[in-house]
Amino acid sequence: MDRIILHSDLNSFYASVECLKNPELRNVPMAVGGSTSERHGIIYAKNELAKKAGVKTGQALWEAHQVCDGLVIVPPHMEEYIAISERVREIYNRFSCTIEPYGIDECWIDCTGSTKLFGSGVEIAQQIMDTVKREIGMTVSIGVSFNKIFAKFGSDYKKPAAITEITHENFKEIIWPCPVEDLFGIGRRRKKSLNWKGIYKIGEIARYERNHLVSWYGKVGGELWDAACGLDARPVSPYGYVPPIKSISSGITCTSDLVNAEEAKKVIYDRSVNISHKLRKHGLAARGIEISVRDINLHSWTFQGQIPYVTQAWHDIAEQAFILFCKRYRWSSPIRSLTVRAINLVSSTQPEQLSLLHDQEKRTKNEKLEKVMETIKKRFGKRAILPAMLLKDTKIPTDSPGELMKMPNMIYG
User: Fold this and answer.
1) Which pLDDT tens digit goes with each residue over 67-82?
2) Which pLDDT score, from 0 to 100, does residue 39 have?
3) How many domains does the chain divide into?
4) 140 and 266 housed in the same domain
């Protein structure tokens, strides 16, 4: 028996919430945008009028104003978006107890066991759409299929307020003629690589032998071929399921461009303090570090390195990250944004083999000091105590919207 998987996507979510609060915004081109002064000046979401005028998600505010004269920009209200998202998920939960959130505005819903109560997958999708419209006042697009990837494709295929069913009989006709980047999980790098090999359509992936994709991309290549052929067997995770944490990152777009190593060091140390807090919160420690840099031309670089010992201390993470940064970044251009990521994570309770090559006494002292800092932050706030270098002239925004909601990573790069 085939599974019945739905993927529900709240249309123009941020903008729709703002229109619920202020219905007059429905009658003008409107977008939710970040702060220009804090260098988060991009479009997060837009209503249909702004979309028709050419405004795009991710576009800089100044570009959006150029393509749409009279565009109204509304600042984001994340707490309200989260509250609405939770209300919508409660509706999904009436039709199935197996739902998997994808970001704040999308969910997979496994309705395989719900058909006797609510009808076919399309009938369930229609009931969900009607209920969300009636109780919340918002529209959704829903894909219905026999696996997660095709259900996601279906919700993207027609918008707004549409239901698309992808079956064994029609998926080749609907999905295969589409560009490879329309397949969930294919990012810009993988698209570029596939195009370089002469693969532009999803169907062209499927027409290759699976082992060819594996020889090019390893395990990911096989998964890519499976996805194009409709062989995605991944389950929808139960509501509330939290997948194992494979890395912990923290990044920001700076208030002005970083032009030297000392400025970059301050950002690295600030982000490392944040990562250390998250590692302690989850009972994890890191054995590796990764730095991602994006310059003013929007070119990106990623560097990885090993930490010579297991640690969750911000000072260790920052020190190793800055060493890696200095070795690898060539300063071809000033830096727009910077991300630090702790990788190769293990349990913080895992026994550690001590090394004679490192000052264990100093590390133990630093660990005790940082635990005291954590206690102070819990009581008085996360910026109650900081490294002295972060007290002034850091080019670090006072409130990073990226801390409020993280989106899952792409699957295939």
Assistant:
1) 999 999 999 999 999 9
2) 55
3) 3
4) no
**CA torsion, points 305, 307, 310, 311, in degrees to nearest 10?**
-100
Rounded Cα gap, residues 34 and 32, in angstroms: 7
130 is in an annotated binding site: no
- The residue among 106, 139, 167 that closes a domain is 167
Q: Is 404 domain-assigned?
A: no
Residue 409 is predicted with a pLDDT of 43
* Nearest-angstrom CA–CA distance, 92 and 108: 9
Residue 105 assigned to a binding site: yes
Q: Are residues 60 and 159 in the same domain?
A: yes
Dump pLDDT digits (tens) for 257-292: 899 999 999 999 999 999 998 998 899 999 999 999
Q: Which pTM value belongs to this model?
A: 0.72
Token pair in block for residue 52: 């028709």
Catalytic residues: 106
Domain that holds residue 29: 1-167
Q: What is the CATH number of the domain that holds 339?
A: 3.30.1490.100
Based on the fold, state whether residues 14 and 144 are members of the same structural domain. yes
> How would residue 387 be classed by pLDDT, with cut points 50, 70 and 90?
confident
Nearest to 367 by CA among 280, 303, 288, 297: 280
Summarised one tens digit per residue, pLDDT across range 296-329 is: 887 889 999 999 889 998 889 999 999 999 999 9
